[in-house]
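sry for the spam today, last one i promise. C-alpha cells for design, 273 residues
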C-alpha cells in the first residue's frame, strides 16, 4: 500500500500548509477572473440596452430636407396629349392648358373626368377680377355650385401662382375643392400652398386676358367646349376671332403662352418652373 505520499502530505503542517493553500486560492481566482469580468460586462450592456433611451433628432439637430423637385412644364402642344386641356371660349378662341398630374394627381383626374362628361360645356366665368384671376366651373353661375362628385382632398404643392397658373377654387375648408377652378392673370404668390395648383396655360394666354370682367360679368365669357387633346375633338370655332389688346396683355410679363421666345437657359419655362 503506497503510504509514502500520505505521509508526506500529512507532514505539511504550519506555515508550509498555509503557503500551499494561498497559492491554490490565487491560481483559482486568476483562472475565473476573465469569466467574471465578461459576465459583469454583459450584465451592464444588457442593463444599458434595456434602460437607455436613444436621443431623438429634432429641430436644429435634424438634417435638412431637400425641397422636392417638381417637373418642368412642357409647352409643346404635340407632347403628352392626355395631359393637355383645351378650352374653346365663347370669344372664339382656343386656350391650351398643360395639366400636371405630378403636382396634383387626384385633381387632374377629376378635371379629366368632368371634361369627358361634358360638365364644363356652357359654363360661364362667373367671377373675373382685373389684375387677379378668372374663375369658372360652377354650373349655377353663382360661385356656390359644383359637380355631384365628392369634394377633393387638398393637394397643395410648391408651384407658385404665376401668370397662367390654373388652380382649384374652394370654400374655407381646404378639402372643399370640387369642380371650380381659376386662371391667374398676374402673379399672386400669397395663394401658394393654400390652393391646389394643377396646371398652366401653355397657349393663347391672350384669350384668357380677353375674358369679360365682373362678379358676375354683365356679358360673361363662357366655355363653349372643354376637351382633352388626346380625344381629338375639333375646335368649336373654325376661324378664331381677332382679339383686341387688353391692359393685361399689354402690361403683363410675357410667358411662353403669350408666344414669348425662350432662351436656352430658361429650359422651356420663362418663369423658371
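last one done:
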Amino acid at each position: 500500500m503506497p503510504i509514502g505520499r500520505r505521509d508526506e502530505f500529512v507532514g505539511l503542517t504550519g506555515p508550509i500548509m498555509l503557503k500551499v493553500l494561498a497559492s491554490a486560492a490565487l491560481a483559482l481566482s486568476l483562472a475565473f477572473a476573465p469569466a467574471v469580468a465578461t459576465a459583469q460586462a454583459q450584465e451592464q450592456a444588457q442593463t444599458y440596452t434595456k434602460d437607455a433611451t436613444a436621443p431623438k433628432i429634432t429641430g436644429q439637430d435634424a438634417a435638412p430636407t431637400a425641397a422636392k423637385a417638381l417637373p418642368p412644364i412642357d409647352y409643346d402642344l404635340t407632347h403628352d396629349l392626355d395631359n393637355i386641356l383645351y378650352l374653346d371660349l365663347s370669344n372664339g378662341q382656343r386656350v391650351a392648358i398643360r395639366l400636371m398630374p405630378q403636382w396634383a394627381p387626384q385633381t387632374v383626374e377629376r378635371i379629366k373626368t368632368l371634361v369627358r362628361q361634358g360638365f364644363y360645356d356652357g359654363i360661364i366665368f362667373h367671377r373675373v377680377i382685373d389684375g387677379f384671376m378668372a374663375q369658372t366651373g360652377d354650373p349655377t353661375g353663382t360661385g356656390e355650385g359644383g359637380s355631384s362628385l365628392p369634394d377633393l382632398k387638398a393637394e397643395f404643392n410648391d408651384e407658385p401662382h404665376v401668370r397662367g397658373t390654373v388652380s382649384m377654387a374652394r370654400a374655407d375648408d381646404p378639402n372643399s375643392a370640387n369642380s371650380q377652378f381659376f386662371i391667374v392673370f398676374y402673379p399672386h404668390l400669397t395663394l401658394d400652398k393654400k390652393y391646389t395648383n394643377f396646371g398652366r396655360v401653355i397657349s393663347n394666354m391672350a384669350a384668357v386676358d380677353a375674358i369679360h370682367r365682373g362678379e358676375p360679368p354683365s356679358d360673361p365669357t363662357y366655355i363653349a367646349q372643354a376637351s382633352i387633346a388626346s380625344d381629338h375633338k375639333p375646335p368649336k370655332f373654325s376661324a378664331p376671332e381677332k382679339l383686341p389688346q387688353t391692359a393685361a396683355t399689354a402690361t403683363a410679363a410675357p410667358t411662353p403662352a403669350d408666344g414669348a421666345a425662350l432662351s436656352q437657359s430658361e429650359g422651356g419655362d420663362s418663369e423658371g418652373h
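The chain has two domains: 9-48, 81-261. ok im logging off now
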